[in-house]
Amino acid sequence: MNPQQLFEKSKKYMWLPFTQMTDYERDPLIIESGDGVRLKDIYGNEYLDGNSSLWLNVHGHRKKEINDAIIKQLDTIAHSTLLGAANVPSILLAEKLIEIAPEPLSRVFYSDSGAESVEIAVKMAYQYWQNKGIKGKTKFVTLSNGYHGDTVGTMSIGSIEIYHKVYTSLLFDALVVPFPSVYHHESSDEQVVCQEGLQLLRDLFEEHHEEIAGMSVESMMQGAGGMNIMPKGYLKGVEALCREFDILLIVDEVATGFGRTGKMFAVEHEDVHPDIMTMAKGITGGYLPVAATLTTEKVYEAFYGEYEEMKTFFHGHSYTGNQLGCAAALANLEIFKNEKLVEQASQKAEYVKELLQEVKDLEHVGDIRQLGLMCGIELVKDCQTKEPFPWELRVGYQSTLKMRELGMITRPLGDVVVFMPPLAATFEELKDMVEILKQGIIWATTEYTK
Ligand code: PLP
Known about the structure:
Elements: H1 3-13, H2 21-26, E1 31-35, E2 38-41, E3 46-49, H3 52-55, H4 64-74, H5 88-100, E4 105-111, H6 114-131, E5 139-143, H7 152-157, H8 161-166, E6 175-177, H9 190-208, E7 212-218, H10 234-244, E8 248-252, E9 276-279, E10 291-296, H11 297-301, H12 323-338, H13 341-360, E11 365-371, E12 374-379, H14 395-406, E13 408-409, E14 411-413, E15 416-419, H15 427-447
Parallel strand pairs: 3-13, 5-6, 5-7, 7-8, 8-9
Antiparallel strand pairs: 1-2, 2-3, 4-10, 9-10, 11-12, 12-15, 14-15
Helix pairs in contact: 4-12, 5-12, 9-10, 13-15, 14-15
């Protein structure tokens, strides 16, 4: 089938996620293959993958060890889910995940996507208190601009404005505290912003702790809500407040886990120990849909005992604990160990930081927020006043379209351009990517300020 026919069929039959289909029809992209950090479309154009697909292709594409592990597993069994039964790769993977996760996490519950892993965390935290007979603790606290997924439960405990606008009466209420964003605060003193943020949380907990089951936070850095970094000490402070007020701490490592921020998990930056932690994306190196919700023995024990219907945890899907996915994840973790990928990622992050200095100096770059290889570049009309571009200009989107034309794929979040290269990108590839990033930003900010 030729490219034009494929495009026509895609227009006729498909509906793409988070996409205005008119944008797709105007600027179509159909990926055919991938190799290392490069993607190729059906016309033969090559692109550097500056977004690790959707923040998950840690090693890029066609990593031999993962391909081999999947093929080997195919020869044994591809999939079986039997309620009340485990399978071999999922057991071996659970052990490895507990080895690398922060203490005292000790139990693994599998699922198929990041959103589901958080949905599970919410249901577990809710039911934990119910099982203990503390019936009033039913609410969740979240940070402004928090993103935990797009299912009804995760939209409810997240605070992405557009979701709440569109799906208003479908969602349940969460208690929202402001995210302590240094760039968007009138004080540029990190400690001031941190202390103010923690005081607001303390005030909320003092008033409502008897109703609060859990608090959910993205780990150290928010992703989809604008690539915002917590000030130093904030997450540790959140942990202390959760302990003081007997509230379960749910940390979402879906985007930040598996080396993305220069540590295996971002909680390690502040030695934080969640009650529940979620992971997905990089868990299989970006190959197959596996996610996991890890809990402590304290949480697990509230569900454990002789058969008692009310204590069963009511969750599980057709593909939960899929053998192919777990085999891919095991191979992925082996590569992390053999290639010392986390240490490498942290060295590469330093290099990217140096490269981004030149981008920082551009006229319309208001802020660059980077933790490891997770970067967001905020474009503004006026750097002095931080005045944004009129949203209808879609300057972020236009800059990423230009980047695509120049040979790199990445993604805008409004006027924040995301840069999340595969951890396996070489220094040279990173240099090429940052150059395209810069050119795309220069082009769009010049074009739209004429
Ligand atoms: N949590 C966070 C922090 C995320 O960034 C995402 C996705 O970007 C999710 C949850 C949802 O993950 P998924 O897209 O796999 O459902």
